[in-house]
């Protein structure tokens, strides 16, 4: 018995060692390129850190400055607007499209999925260049259509006017955000137990009742996942801003991510940039926790 | 449980060791093991009188160079200054250098303006800075020089060099306390340009002097109005979506009524002067001139070339050459100085030259100085080095572009080059604040309020440096 026991322990030990050995490469990568930079980010946020000189410990000065910085507060506001608008719109739109296309014949459904997924796989630079051309003040297609149909009297400087610039960014963000949720929702809707739906229909349930009472609860985990990733992506909106507006005009399209980039990689204020990064991480973590809690309560 | 803890601890140790290994590469001051010196170049290579003699004519640097004739490996990182960003051209020049100095090996890395600063700053942090870098005073002098990272090039600046190199260039190559951190190679004056065909059709050519390439502020207004009345709704744009090409908007605003960007000592920003405010108010009020926050200098150039605008404020000889070569221009381009009240424009210039990072290795520093001396002072090579940049020499080398109509036409603007104020402190912040200020003006903010905010931001950055 004791011999069997010790053999079993040896086996477990060998398996444990093998398990850790297999994990080791990705673990090293994860620790080195995710955990270590995160710790370093928090640590550096307490320093006046820049290039080519020793860091100076400043305690919470970066955080205090952050909440007195009008540009940062503006960027925070813009980021919140992007999240508040784009997350629900992305979820609702992608759910609507998925509901329409999920039970289409195979090729049709695939074609729609492809069309909506194209902006996701297209490089953000290419997407931004095309949109920039369409929004062009002088010969963009929106102004062309607008003026020729009488919708607008004269050309609008879509990306150069602070009244429109953020809206344009959100619109582009939506087109690049809906692809993945549509694919996920189509998959989730296809996995809904059809026997329940058919039974409900036989019992006289309307289409809306079928959706709300049967499908919606079953696709809730997918919805939660989509909510979380869309929220995170919206908070991290950077490439479009960098490529299209550089945060302008008048900081009207500054986002936290862009402002972090500007401070860290243009002004080399690493400590200040990292403090913003910490604040952004806390906001995203809190929001994600709230979303999970809400989903759990349902 | 204990075993798991032990494994976790062991993994942590592995991690720490691997990180330590990543950072423990000694890149500091240790002398690199010299490669075996290649066989001496054939005698006839160095018998090319002009090359070897002119190098020998130089004073102190050549003395240093003599010491540096031992094997040394140096690195040159070059920003895309004309064809100094082209490996074929640079390799050809390095071959010329190696024909005279066969034991100095030069490795080149090509940077761009998007990532170049990051690459160099990262290299500095990692004690891997290049030995040589080719760029302008705003980086070599005002940035890395001011931080004590560069070698004093005073010994290259011999009395002869000082007597030959233009004064405005000399002052840009040294810090406020008189230390030379750059040895200049080439320069240019940024201009503006007009679409001559449209101007002619609009009857606006009468307002400018085609021979000298100058015009007055009053005539500039008349010309813009004439072109606008002719039907060209977008005559020009004060582009301000980013810092690209901002030398054009700075020069335009400073020139209109004789304003300045900084004081003469380059210690304080003065863009809030009455002259600059007046210039901004004038531009804001002009028909056909838009403050456009959706485009930067590069976009403006493209839109000028495709006929959207009748004038470009971001222009120079290279722009015309490149766009003409690519077939982007199908009209006559007329390069112009920026309009002034006095008729004496002060153009914003560009100066490019070499700096040496102080990597603590005297042999490499000496070899780098030898390289600079050869590229910038060797009678024959200096012409080739300057021509590779597509700009003009910083001293009189004769008409190096003889027979080149385009370059000869733009040469007339070089004497108009004004103060090289880009060496002022807080330059990176000031550049961002500048286009933000223009965006504010464009969206209706009171001009005085906007420029005061700009100056406050820029001066704060300058004093913090």
Topology:
The complex is a heterodimer of chains A (298) and B (465).
Chain A: H1 2-44, E1 47-48, E2 56-57, H2 61-66, H3 70-101, H4 106-121, H5 124-134, H6 141-149, H7 165-177, H8 179-190, H9 194-202, H10 207-235, H11 239-244, H12 256-266, H13 270-297
Antiparallel strand pairs in A: 1-2
Chain B: H1 2-23, H2 43-46, H3 49-57, H4 60-67, E1 72-78, H5 87-100, E2 104-110, H6 116-125, E3 132-135, H7 137-145, H8 159-164, H9 167-172, E4 183-189, E5 191-195, H10 196-201, H11 217-230, E6 236-239, H12 246-256, H13 274-285, E7 289-292, H14 297-305, E8 311-315, H15 317-325, E9 333-336, E10 349-356, H16 362-377, H17 379-389, E11 392-393, H18 405-411, H19 427-442, H20 447-464
Parallel strand pairs in B: 1-2, 1-3, 6-7
Antiparallel strand pairs in B: 3-10, 4-10, 4-11, 5-8, 5-9
Helix pairs in contact in B: 4-16, 5-17, 12-13, 16-17, 19-20
Keywords:
heterodimer; A: 298 residues; mainly alpha; 13 helices; 76% helix; flat; B: 465 residues; alpha/beta; 6-stranded mixed β-sheet; 3-stranded antiparallel β-sheet; 20 helices; 11 strands
């Amino acid at each position: 018995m004791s011999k069997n026991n010790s053999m079993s322990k040896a086996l477990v030990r060998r398996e444990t060692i093998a398990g850790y050995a297999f994990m080791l490469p990705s673990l090293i990568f994860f620790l080195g390129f995710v955990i270590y930079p995160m710790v370093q980010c928090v640590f550096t946020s307490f320093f006046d850190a820049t290039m080519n000189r020793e860091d100076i410990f400043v305690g919470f000065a970066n955080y205090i400055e952050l909440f007195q910085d009008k540009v940062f507060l503006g960027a925070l506001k813009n980021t919140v607007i992007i999240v508040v608008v784009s997350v629900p719109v992305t979820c609702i739109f992608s759910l609507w499209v998925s509901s329409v296309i999920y039970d289409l014949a195979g090729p049709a459904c695939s074609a729609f999925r492809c069309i909506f997924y194209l902006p996701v796989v297209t490089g953000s630079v290419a997407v931004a260049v095309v949109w920039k051309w369409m929004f062009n003040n002088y010969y963009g297609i929106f102004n062309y259509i607008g003026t020729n149909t009488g919708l607008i009297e004269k050309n609008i400087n879509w990306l150069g006017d602070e009244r429109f610039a953020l809206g344009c960014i959100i619109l582009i963000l939506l087109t690049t955000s809906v692809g993945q949720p549509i694919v996920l929702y189509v998959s989730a809707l296809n996995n809904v137990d059809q026997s329940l739906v058919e039974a409900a229909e036989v019992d006289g349930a309307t289409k809306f009742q079928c959706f709300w009472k049967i499908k919606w609860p079953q696709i809730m985990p997918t919805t939660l996942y989509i909510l979380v990733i869309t929220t995170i992506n919206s908070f991290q909106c950077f490439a479009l801003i960098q490529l299209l507006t550089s945060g302008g005009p008048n900081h009207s399209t500054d986002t936290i991510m862009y402002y972090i980039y500007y401070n860290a990689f243009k002004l080399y204020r690493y400590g200040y940039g990292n403090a913003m990064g910490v604040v952004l991480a806390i906001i995203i973590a809190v929001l994600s926790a709230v979303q999970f809690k809400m989903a759990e309560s349902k | 449980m204990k075993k798991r803890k032990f494994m976790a601890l062991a993994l942590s140790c592995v991690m720490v060791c691997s990180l330590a290994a990543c950072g423990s590469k000694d890149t500091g001051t240790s002398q690199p093991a010299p490669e075996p010196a290649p066989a001496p170049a054939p005698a006839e290579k160095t018998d090319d009188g002009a090359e070897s003699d002119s190098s020998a004519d130089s004073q102190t640097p050549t003395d240093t160079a003599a010491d540096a004739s031992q094997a040394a490996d140096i690195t040159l990182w070059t920003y895309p200054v004309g064809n100094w960003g082209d490996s074929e051209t640079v390799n050809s020049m390095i071959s010329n250098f190696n024909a005279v100095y066969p034991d100095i090996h030069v490795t080149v890395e090509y940077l761009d303006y998007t990532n170049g600063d990051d690459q160099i700053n990262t290299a500095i942090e990692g004690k891997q800075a290049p030995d040589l870098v080719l760029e302008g005073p705003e980086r070599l002098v005002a940035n890395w020089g001011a931080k004590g990272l560069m070698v004093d090039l005073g010994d290259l600046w011999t009395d002869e060099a000082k007597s030959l190199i233009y004064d405005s260039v000399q002052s840009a190559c040294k810090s406020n306390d008189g230390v030379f951190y750059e040895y200049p190679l080439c320069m240019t004056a940024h201009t503006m340009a007009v679409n001559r065909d449209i101007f002619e059709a609009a009857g606006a050519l009468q307002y400018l002097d085609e021979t000298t390439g100058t015009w007055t502020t009053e005539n500039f207004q008349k010309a813009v109005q004439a072109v606008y009345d002719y039907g060209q709704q977008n005559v020009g744009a004060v582009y301000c979506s980013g810092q690209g090409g901002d030398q054009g908007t700075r020069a335009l605003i400073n020139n209109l009524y004789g304003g300045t960007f900084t004081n003469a000592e380059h210690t304080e920003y003065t863009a809030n002067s009455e002259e600059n405010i007046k210039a901004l108010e004038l531009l804001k009020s002009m028909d056909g001139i838009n403050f456009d926050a959706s485009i930067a200098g590069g976009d403006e150039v493209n839109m000028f070339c495709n006929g959207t605008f009748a004038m470009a404020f971001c222009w120079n000889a290279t722009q015309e050459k490149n766009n003409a070569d690519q077939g982007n221009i199908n009209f006559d381009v007329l390069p112009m100085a920026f309009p002034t009240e006095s008729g004496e424009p002060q153009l914003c210039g560009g100066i490019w030259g070499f700096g040496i990072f102080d990597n603590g290795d005297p042999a490499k520093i000496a070899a780098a100085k030898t390289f600079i001396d050869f590229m910038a002072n060797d009678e024959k090579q200096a012409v080739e080095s300057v021509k590779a940049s597509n700009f003009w020499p910083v001293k009189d080398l004769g008409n190096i572009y003889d027979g080149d109509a385009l370059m000869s036409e733009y040469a007339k603007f070089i004497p108009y080059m004004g103060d090289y104020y880009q060496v002022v402190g807080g330059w990176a912040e000031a550049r961002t604040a500048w286009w933000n200020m223009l965006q504010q003006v464009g969206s209706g903010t009171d001009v005085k309020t906007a420029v005061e905010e700009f100056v406050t931001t820029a001066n704060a950055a300058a004093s913090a440096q």
